[in-house]
Write a structure and sequence with these properties.
8 helices, ten-stranded antiparallel β-sheet, disordered N terminus, Zincin-like, 15 strands, alpha+beta, five-stranded mixed β-sheet, Jelly Rolls
């Protein structure tokens, strides 16, 4: 059972006069550590991210500072989507490395009565906590400055300090998910058009102290929906059939694929996860206990980084009766491979060969999962591309030839060597008695004979 860690920060009293100063500002912080965190930001006291809050159509811009190009742009802060994994930089906004934060301006277009301001972040380490000062303004003060720089005190330029937030734990794990919910004892924080987040880095021991901000929500008291009931669609969760892996599928970016993903895709991935793990073992290795798939419009077909898969919903829609499920089973193999940059155990390449990284998943897909589809057939049309290192389907065809003729355990052996940083081309000679080029020539010759018959 998951335990909750809730911190009630010190109450900040707004000292500013005028209509924006109401009662006492209350800030609730909840933190799930890396083990507890899961897609959806399912906090007990902090509302889950909303898809129809007042910030949904706000204009968010950088008032001061520099965006880190490795992350998403400011639109990630109010797109109604949240990351499905702890290390998903493209789904978060964060300021550039080697800088001490920056300032974000939220323009709501009109002054509204705000009941809550909620912020969310997720990272494995020191980029998870949130440290910022929050200011508000209706923009009517004579000396109002819309984008005050870091060396400028906003309170001297038409802004009122709402509260200060610092979620860094005094002890224990920093990483994980953080949810912050700011409200007021009188029910309304204030009537503001502009919000200014003056963000600071969480630490300066290295260059990577800027928070991975996932979403900012602003709840309008006078809106038809207060935002609490219309939270972002939670990812669908399913356990692998052996119970050892939790698979998360997020279709919030493509809601029309929700039923297909849950009823057709998920059961296949759950069934095949332990099967693939059994095909790709190595000494001391344990496959990931969870991985996520995010389905949304994009480019290409799909891609995997660590335990995070992104899939192009536009492509999948055209392949329901074709390659949709098989393509994501291919990505599931990547999750289990976890080759990364294997340690260099012996002289040779520091990176695993790309053609094997892609060839092994296609071998499992086309020869184990759906052999009846004959998706790796070599024909006269693609014979000229029949090289062992052509990658994907063609490499899969080559691997199947070598497996069937020389070594039934070849895939298991090559996988272990790659994962452990021990792969060299000498292994082909060791396991089959022939070099990889000799095997390739033999394989292609056999294909040519069949095509000529």
């Amino acid at each position: 059972m998951r335990t909750h860690s809730m911190l009630l920060l010190g109450v900040t009293i707004l000292l500013a006069s005028g209509p924006a100063a109401f009662g006492k500002v209350k800030t609730i912080v909840e933190h799930y550590n890396n083990e507890q965190a899961e897609p959806g930001f399912k906090f007990k006291n902090v509302p889950r991210p909303s898809r129809r809050d007042a910030a949904r159509h706000a204009n968010i811009s950088i008032a001061d500072g520099q965006r880190d190009q490795a992350g998403g742009d400011v639109s990630k802060l109010n797109d109604g989507r949240v990351p499905t994994d702890a290390d998903e930089p493209g789904e978060n906004f964060f300021f550039a490395v080697n800088t001490d934060g920056g300032r974000l301006l939220v323009d709501l277009a009109n002054a509204i009565n705000i009941t809550h301001i909620n912020t969310y972040s997720w990272h494995t380490d020191s980029r998870a906590p949130q440290v910022y000062k929050l200011y508000g303004s209706d923009g009517t003060e004579r000396d109002f400055e819309e984008k005050p720089k870091k060396d400028t005190d906003p309170e001297q330029h038409g802004w009122k300090l709402i509260t200060k937030v610092d979620t860094r734990p005094k002890q224990g794990e920093k990483g994980g998910q953080y949810g912050v919910s700011i409200s007021d004892s009188e029910g309304t924080i204030g009537k503001y058009r502009y919000l200014l987040f003056a963000c600071s880095r969480t630490e300066d021991e290295d260059a990577f102290g800027n928070t991975f901000y996932s979403e900012i929500d602003v709840i309008d008291k006078d809106a038809q929906s207060d935002g609490f009931a219309d939270n972002a669609v939670a990812p669908f969760l399913i356990k692998s059939t052996d119970g050892k892996c939790e698979i998360s599928i997020d279709t919030s970016g493509a809601p029309d694929l929700k039923e297909w993903a849950e009823k057709q895709l998920a059961p296949v991935l759950a069934e095949w996860y332990p099967k693939i793990v059994a095909m790709l073992p190595s000494e001391g290795y344990t496959a990931p206990s969870k991985f996520s798939i995010s389905i949304r419009p994009g480019k290409g077909v799909a891609a995997t980084g660590g335990t995070r898969v992104t899939a192009n919903s536009d492509w999948l829609k055209n392949e329901f009766k074709g390659e949709a499920i098989g393509s994501l089973l291919h990505e599931e193999v990547h999750v289990i491979q976890q080759y990364g940059y294997a340690p260099r155990k012996i002289p040779g390449p520091t990176r695993p060969p790309a053609w094997l990284i892609e060839g092994i998943p296609d071998y499992i897909r086309w020869y184990k999962y759906e052999p009846e589809s004959h998706g790796c057939e070599i024909t006269r049309q693609n014979l000229s591309r029949a090289r062992y290192d052509a990658s994907y389907r063609i490499t899969a065809n080559f691997l199947n030839y070598v497996v069937e003729k020389y070594d039934k355990e070849l895939i298991t052996k090559m996988n272990a060597a790659i994962r452990e940083g021990k792969y060299t081309e000498d292994l082909w000679k060791k396991y089959t008695g022939k070099t990889v080029q000799e095997l390739s020539d033999e394989w292609k010759s056999e294909i040519e004979k069949k095509l000529a018959a």
